[in-house]
Amino acid sequence: MFGKTNMFYYGLAYVKTVTFMKEDACWIRDQVKQHTRWFEQSLPMIASENLMSPLAKEMMISDFHDRYAEGMPGKRYYQGNIYVDKVELKCLELARKIFDAGFVDVRPISGTVANIAVLFALTEPGDKIATPELASGAHISTAPFGAVGLRGLNPVHYPWDYKNWNLDIDATRKFLRKEKPKVAQFGLSVFLFPTPIKELEDALQDAGCMVWYDAAHVLGLIAGKKFQDPLREGVDIISGSTHKTFPGPNHGILVGNDLSDEVEAKLRKAAFPGVTSSHHLHAMAALAVTMAEYEIYGKKYASQVIKNAKALGSALYEMGIDVMCPHLGFTESHTLAISVANHGGGAQVAQDLERANIIVNKNMLPGDTSSVKPSGIRLGTQELTRLGMEKGEMEEVARLIYRVVVKKEDPEVVKKDVWELKKEFTKVRYCLNEGEEAYQYHELV
Predict the structure, then answer these.
(1) What is the pLDDT of residues 199-232, one digit of tens each?
(2) Domains in the chain, ordered, with CATH?
């Protein structure tokens, strides 16, 4: 079909294509290595991130990554899951113990996927659902443009106590009795304080609604017995992601207690085949390892995360930075909400801090109307705590932030001092491999 000349040019083009593809692959790998080095020299303070232990991370590159499992352990649609089933059963056993729960499903592949599973299981299009507002710290999955809107639900929002960054309890009692939502959803992305669910128990019962708690941000604090215990306070179902205060893989989970057989069946069906097919077996194995480690280290870790958040909030406040809720100790979680309206606004401040290798995010505060140019930033202490930082380091972190935000020092100058602090804290703590480097990048042979 091809003459010799055509074959020559075809072969030359093939060689060039392979060369370019190899260059692309090497370039991509180099970008990942640069990112890893950057974060090794940074203060990562995004409230929705954390570091896995080396043992959990090993699971992510195991053969589990390349395999497929549909259904429940022992009832798979594929063969080849003998050891997958054993690991998943252990993961479920550990989760039931840690959360003191009768129902657990670890097949959702993220927190939002877990949320969508709950929506599919508990609601129909047109149903009314009660949620917090975005400007009050809610997650985007409950917004009209998020999962709630795509499900075709009618969201109604709780009355909010802006001073105390929580529900207005008396007004919410009246609201629930009036609105009678099909589902009352609680949970925030700026989650400073426990939700007063026990105080709303009578109103929730009068409304006749299912009670759902999105614990994505505080799952590790709940598991560590340091925040609140939703299942003992009147919550029916908890959803969550497993990579924030719970320092596992990017994955999801459903946890419940005293659910009817019908509701459990709906949740299982929603998880599979509703929102997942195979459920990322490598992440499930990493989650199982994290569960096993958290049973040992969880209480100590969760306690230190909260202590560090309070210490950081206090230090920033004493420097004149407008940290929310000083009268309540700033926070009872890993998160701080800070107004930087007088320092350039959330978007500008987050960019300036990034240039200094302090990684935070802009965030809406009550009264904001734009998520693109909000007045606030959000900080989290869970990752710095995972690296072994304590109160003294939080005071130093506060000084570094102050220099960028208030004094407007050149971020490139501050960056050098960020690395001086951080280079003593690059090893993972609160895990079985304590002391191993958090930012290893294994060279390929």
Answers:
(1) 999 999 999 999 999 999 999 999 999 999 999 9
(2) 44-51+297-422 (3.90.1150.10), 54-290 (3.40.640.10)
